[in-house]
Design goal:
Layout (H helix, E strand, L loop, with lengths): L17 H21 L5 H4 L4 H11 L1 H18 L2 H21 L1 E2 L2 E2 L2 H21 L3 H16 L5 H36 L21 H13 L2 H10 L1 H15 L5 H14 L1 H21 L5
Antiparallel strand pairs: 1-2
């Protein structure tokens, strides 16, 4: 059946809807980036991490429904181009979190990042729980993965150190997924805003906070870890603290806004983060907790 056209010659139907066209293009672009990496092609390891970017761009420009359409197109392309495992990995690491973030980012007709920030901690924990249910000895598998990585690097580590790394391997993966979503989402919103396509303006940093129900969750995970132990409980607690950590980093940016030498301070701050993450991470969690509690306790301004 031929595509109908309007009297002015413009196509009608699905091909005349910019959102549908954008969803199709975004889905195919994301699938190509993912399949490039899954097939081991050059630079695939780098291109894989920007696969969510076109999905976010479609959502921020045309709405969450178009983003879901783009995710569906990309997932089907990955399924036919790789395997069911590749399909599951794409949906779990990229597709579902992008859809959840976009679906919860608009509240009362404006962009609100409170729920998306919480999802950065919640979704990796859900993934970890699914893995723990489906894999009989998840801790053993993580230890074997660490040992394999150490052997490939050609270095030797004491068994105790290997065990410690295995305990937090899932937490490191969750932290990376959160940063992946944050980086691609911010880049996509900036891109569509520059092009004049953004549905909603980016909210100021001063408005960023977690929902009131989120803060008890890391405490629950801490209690479970104290009672039963295990890598899953420990990693869940650490992953749930990632949004609080991000709040602390945002607090540093907010404090330095408008100050002389801001760029130099930020460069030094991130250098310290890279070199002394074990010290800086708890410090940023503390800053984030303080900022969240202080602003919730402050009386509303009129």
């Amino acid at each position: 059946m031929s595509q109908s056209a309007s009297p002015g010659g413009a196509p009608t139907g699905a091909f005349g809807q910019p959102g549908v066209l954008a969803a199709g293009a975004a889905g195919m672009c994301a699938a190509v980036l993912a399949l490039w990496a899954m097939r081991g092609l050059p630079l695939g390891g780098l291109l894989l991490w920007v696969a969510p970017l076109p999905l976010f761009a479609a959502g921020f420009a045309f709405g969450a429904r178009m983003a879901v359409l783009a995710i569906g197109i990309a997932a089907l392309a990955v399924l036919f181009g790789s395997s069911f495992l590749g399909f599951a990995v794409f949906l779990g690491v990229f597709g579902v979190p992008v859809a959840l973030i976009l679906a919860t980012s608009v509240q009362a007709g404006r962009m609100d990042l409170s729920l998306p920030l919480a999802i950065l901690g919640l979704w990796p924990v859900v993934l970890l729980g699914l893995l723990a249910v489906s894999v009989s000895d998840l801790e053993g598998e993580m230890r074997e993965a660490v040992e394999m990585g150490v052997r490939r690097m050609g270095v030797s580590m004491p068994d105790g150190m290997v065990a410690q790394i295995a305990q937090v391997k899932a937490a490191a993966a969750g932290f990376w997924i959160a940063l992946l979503m944050l980086g691609n989402g911010a880049a996509a919103q900036n891109l569509v805003t520059r092009q004049g396509l953004a549905l909603h303006a980016t909210p100021p940093l001063e408005e960023l906070r977690l929902p009131h129900w989120y803060l008890p969750l890391p405490l629950v995970a801490l209690a479970v870890w104290a009672l039963v132990g295990g890598a899953v409980a420990l990693s869940s607690m650490l992953i749930l603290l990632v949004p609080v950590f991000l709040l602390g980093v945002v607090g540093v940016h907010r404090l330095l806004r408008g100050r002389p030498g801001r760029l130099a301070f930020l460069i030094g701050f991130y250098m310290l983060m890279l070199l002394f993450l074990q010290i800086m991470a708890p410090l940023m969690v503390g800053v984030g907790l303080y900022d969240q509690i202080r602003r919730r306790a402050a009386p509303p301004q009129t």
